[in-house]
Amino acid sequence: MNTHKTILSLCDYSGEWPRPYREAGYTVIQVDIQHGQDVRLLEFPGQVHGILAAPPCTHLANSGARWWKDKGEDALFEALAVADACVRLAALCRPAWWALENPSGRLSRYYGPPAFSFDPCEFGDPYTKRTHL
Q1: Is 114 left (phi over 0), alpha (psi -120 to 50) or beta?
Q2: Which of 40, 62, 83, 91 could in theory staple to 55 by disulfide, Cβ–Cβ 3.0 to 4.6 A?
């Protein structure tokens, strides 16, 4: 595998986020539970050039805060386990760059403040959804 041309795209059902890399000739390894691959069980794939990670926000985003108490801690543990697996892979693979995406929510309580925040409308999409990288 050519590590300079490989992008690991985690928690990625649609393949939209890494599409520009694929179109530019990169090999994209797409991992998603809906494709039968649980990122928590992904074995060390070796060194890659970059990692895109978008763990599910269902139990983390502020938009669902009113349900957090009813969901209980098990839902939070599940969400953090998936996010932690993404960060573990970034630490192990040592890519030139990596990004973990999630909407505004409680993930920053565990990982600290985001490096970058934006609304998709700032980049031409017609909607707002405060997102952190």
Answers
A1: beta
A2: 83
